[in-house]
Write a structure and sequence with these properties.
Layout (H helix, E strand, L loop, with lengths): L42 E6 L9 E7 L8 E6 L20 E3 L5 E6 L4 E7 L5 E3 L5 E2 L5 E7 L2 E6 L13 E8 L5 E10 L9 E2 L5 E5 L4 E7 L5 E3 L5 E2 L17 E5 L5 E6 L4 E7 L5 E8 L6 E6 L5 E6 L4 E6 L8 E7 L9 E3 L5 E6 L13 E7 L5 E2 L6 E2 L9 E7 L5
Antiparallel strand pairs: 1-2, 1-31, 2-3, 4-5, 5-6, 6-7, 6-8, 9-10, 10-11, 11-12, 13-14, 14-15, 15-16, 15-17, 18-19, 19-20, 20-21, 22-23, 23-24, 24-25, 26-27, 27-28, 28-29, 28-30
Length: about 425
């Protein structure tokens, strides 16, 4: 995650608010250790190799079997395109949802950031992939960094930044596609352009109301209402700036932007990191796409808390701390409007924690840690971590984690999608 400060510097402040929903202090407890119990997860974890070499991007499929904490096999599938590259912390890699699967777990979508396409695969019950006819499909813009899905509409956030081509004067954009019954992407004719260097980081769709929310590296949050035929209408009041109150001394500075959107599964609340302030912010949203700032809270002990995920039961919020090689855990059960930090877990090895995903039962958290900056020594990072989640939501990393991603040095693997095996009986 890009930063204007030196590596491993922490800024912290606290704020709390009882807000619109009537539903705050912050306490930090010690981090977790290791455990070695057998894994009960069975399924496939997908990571994008993100190779920037022409036509060399691939989806890496890690197959897990019940009782094994390490993948039983790794298979790769060509996306038909190329990825991105950066070790300068310039924002090229700042994105989430590079890989997603549809709700029925039958289709997987993957961005080709370096070749302006989106690959689509059929997902078999055993997790194997086969390309949809016609894949990859043009992304409708330059350097797609993230994809989102609402019903049969796919949204692509085109960053117009890939670390390889000269795209600094090219507008970024949001483009929609209809997903055909066979998985093909059909352009809807809707593209909304935003200024060059906006570099949107996520095409996040809220679980309530289907509001499209993105963060941009100009410091903005932008919302759209998804309409019939894939139309995009700016949300009420969009775009939104972070409030001055969250900045030290209440003095706004740049570059500071939110990154890593996640949502409460039952309440109209979204969470995001603010990496360069080492904070987490909370917003409420409504069906008109209006965002209302609720709270800004410190992510203590972290540096560059970026991508986030909320547990399926809505009790815990996790952030991937890209600059401190850690994962933070927040309790949001007692007060969803005021997350309370309960753990900071330092991951094994060295790398930059990036994209995360929880298994459907919430018992395991996978984290991709690319070598995303030159400060990480060559040969370090580029790993996949499997963390145990205990009943309280705290994390521990077993001795079997992490596993190395089969990519070459200089490659920045990104993206994470999880498909659990069907449960029988």
């Amino acid at each position: 995650m890009s930063s204007n400060a030196g590596p491993y510097v922490v800024l912290a402040r606290a704020a709390g608010l009882l807000g619109l929903l009537g539903i705050g202090a912050v306490v930090l407890l010690s981090g977790g250790g290791t455990s070695g119990g057998p894994s009960r997860f069975a399924g496939t974890v997908y990571v994008e190799s993100n190779s920037s070499a022409p036509g060399q991007n691939r989806v890496l499929a890690f197959s897990y079997r019940t009782g094994s904490a390490r993948p039983a096999a790794v298979v790769s599938y060509a996306t038909g395109g190329s990825g991105s590259h950066d070790l300068s912390n310039s924002g090229v890699l700042d994105a989430d949802q590079q890989l997603i699967v549809n709700p029925t777990r039958t289709l997987l979508f993957a961005v080709n950031q370096g070749s302006d396409t989106v690959a689509v695969f059929h997902v078999a019950p055993d997790g194997t992939l086969s390309p949809v006819a016609g894949s990859p499909f043009p992304s409708g813009g330059s350097a797609p960094g993230s994809v989102g899905l609402w019903g049969d509409t796919l949204i692509v956030a085109n960053k117009a930044q890939d670390g390889v081509r000269a795209l600094s004067r090219v507008p970024a954009s949001y483009t929609t596609f209809a997903v055909g019954s066979d998985g093909t992407l059909i352009p809807t004719g809707t593209t909304v352009s935003v200024p060059a260097r906006s570099s949107p980081t996520q095409a996040f769709v809220t679980p309530r109301d289907g509001v499209l929310v993105s963060t941009e590296e100009t410091g903005l949050l932008r919302t759209f209402l998804l309409g019939p035929g894939g139309s995009l209408t700016p949300g009420a009041g969009s775009p939104f700036q972070l409030p001055t109150s969250i900045f030290p001394g209440q003095v706004r500075r740049h570059p500071v932007w939110p990154a890593g959107l996640s949502a409460h599964p039952k309440l109209p609340l979204i969470y995001s990191g603010v990496p360069n302030l080492s904070e987490v912010v909370v917003y409420s949203y409504d069906a008109q796409g209006r965002l209302t700032f609720v709270a800004g809270l410190p992510d203590r002990g972290s540096f560059l808390p970026c991508w986030s995920v909320v547990s399926p039961d809505g009790r815990r919020l996790y952030t991937a701390d890209a600059g401190s090689d850690s994962v933070s855990v927040f309790d949001i059960a007692a007060d969803p409007l005021a997350p309370r930090q309960v753990q900071l877990l330092k991951l094994r090895g060295d790398g930059n924690p990036w994209n995360m995903g929880l298994t459907p039962d919430g018992r395991y958290l996978f984290v991709v840690t690319p070598r995303a900056v030159a400060q990480i020594p060559p040969g370090q990072g580029n790993t996949l971590h499997m963390l145990d989640v205990d009943p309280s939501g705290r994390l521990s990393e077993p001795s079997s984690s992490p596993v190395s991603l089969p990519v070459s040095i200089g490659t920045n693997p990104l993206g994470l999608a999880i498909v659990a095996n069907p449960v029988h009986g």
